[in-house]
Design brief:
With 420 residues, this protein is an alpha+beta fold. It folds into three domains: 110 residues, conserved putative lor/sdh protein from methanococcus maripaludis s2 fold (Beta Barrel), CATH 2.40.420; 94 residues, Elongation Factor Tu (Ef-tu), domain 3; 126 residues. Helix content is 27%, strand content 37%. The strands form five sheets. Strands 2-9-12-11-10-13 form a six-stranded antiparallel β-barrel. It has a four-stranded antiparallel β-sheet with strand order 6-5-3-8, with no helix packed on it.
């Protein structure tokens, strides 16, 4: 191939490559020009469409201050009911899980031998009483005869001693009767406290002994019930101050922490701090009327130690976090735009946050729709009753499915206040 022909081929190849590159880059250039002609929608927030958001008004309210902990429910009294005498069980008169009053007869033991022992002591006392009556008659006779010197004084003194001896014997017999009566009463096994019976530990016909540790049934007092829990030692000043003013209110919470199983009072703070954990143990008491608490159950508790009076409150969903700390988007200009407002918080939970500085009551704050917000962004505000809720309700989509009406929280995003 000659040099001229090679040059011609290279020139044609270059034209082909230039044409391909031009075809590829032309649509993108046209798109860029079109975007510029529309006013730069991506670069100028002031010319974008208003961002739809949900907003709620900050307001003043009394906010309780709680200390949260995890405790264990424990029966106020627990008794293992045992037999105090040996014998065969003739009858069991309770059902497992039954609520019984104090003094209720739970079981009966064969009383034959104990009844016989009681009857024997009663008969012995009757015998000694007859001897005492005869000795007193002889004492009266000797007393009259001694006045006429018919008997010597020694016989009179001997008879007085016999009467005193028989009177002491009567007291001894009475003590034996009382003991036999008590032993006989032990054949009726009664509930020492009011409570609920557990699973039966022995059946009818079995021989039980007073020294056995197993027992017949475990009786547990469920109303009221105690809850033991621990709090960090740093909370001791608040706890002791509250206890000095009266018993602190406490709530036993459901597993999700949204509602209270029961309401009670803190009864005592332990007299020492556990040095291994740095916590102090507390005991609370709950009425437990509906039996929501059960011995051995783990339960979340919260102690009311203070109440913040008339503080500014906003939904927790409105609070965002950026490089400079917490902030909120405040609606301004008649609900047409937003501004970033730094705030400081006193406390915060899943539902609401207490604002110490940076916000006034009745100011509107954005609770949903943060993804495209920046300083001065144009917005359209909707007033939703459930703004800031953690569990939004569902609404139908055009395709018939149900979507979630939740918050687009940018919590934890450092650029939440800077990027649309």
């Amino acid at each position: 191939m000659t040099l001229k022909r090679r040059i011609t081929v290279l020139f044609i190849a270059g034209l082909v490559i230039a044409a391909v590159v031009g075809v590829y880059y032309m649509p993108q250039s046209q798109q860029t020009s079109a975007a510029i002609s529309r006013g730069g929608r991506r670069g100028n927030p002031a010319t974008t469409d208003p961002v739809p958001v949900l907003a709620a008004a900050a307001h003043k309210a009394d906010v309780p201050v709680y200390l949260d902990g995890v405790g264990t429910a424990k029966a106020l009294n627990t008794v293992t009911v045992r037999s105090q005498v040996d014998g065969k069980i003739m009858e069991i008169s309770f059902t497992e899980g039954q609520d019984v009053p104090k003094g209720y007869v739970l079981a009966k033991i064969d009383p034959v031998t104990y009844q016989a022992a009681y009857d024997q002591t009663v008969a012995k006392k009757a015998q000694d009483e007859a001897q005492l009556a005869n000795a007193r008659l002889d004492l009266d006779r000797y007393t009259r005869l001694a006045a006429t010197n018919a008997v010597n004084k020694q016989q009179l003194d001997t008879q007085r001693a016999l009467v005193a001896q028989l009177e002491a014997q009567i007291k001894l017999d009475q003590a034996a009767i009382d003991n036999a009566r008590a032993v006989l009463s032990y054949t009726d096994i009664v509930a020492p406290i009011a409570g609920r019976t557990g699973i039966r530990l022995v059946d009818v016909g079995n021989l039980v002994r007073g020294a056995e540790a197993t027992g017949i049934v475990i009786l547990t007092q469920l109303r009221p019930i105690s809850v033991f829990f621990s709090l960090p030692q740093q909370n001791l000043p608040d706890l002791t101050k509250g206890m000095a003013e009266g018993e602190l209110p406490i709530d036993a919470l459901t597993p999700d922490g949204r509602s209270a199983l029961d309401k009670g009072k803190v009864k005592v703070i332990d007299n020492q701090v556990d040095q291994t954990t740095g916590t102090v143990k507390l005991k609370a008491e709950f009425p437990n009327e509906n039996l929501q608490l059960w011995p051995g159950q783990f339960v979340n508790v919260r102690v009311l130690i203070d109440t913040l009076r008339q503080v500014v409150v906003v939904p927790t969903a409105a609070v965002q976090r950026g490089p400079n700390g917490t902030f909120v988007y405040v609606v301004k200009d008649g609900a047409r735009s937003v501004t970033v407002r730094p705030v400081t918080l006193t406390q915060q939970d899943d539902v609401r946050a207490v604002v110490a500085t940076g916000l006034q009551a009745d100011e509107q704050v954005v609770t949903t729709g943060f993804a495209r917000l920046t300083e001065g962004a144009q917005v359209t505000v909707s007033n939703a009753e459930d703004a800031g809720q953690l569990a939004p309700t569902a609404r139908p989509r055009p395709d018939g499915t149900r979507g979630r009406r939740g918050s687009e929280r940018a919590k934890g995003s450092p650029s939440a206040a800077a990027n649309p």
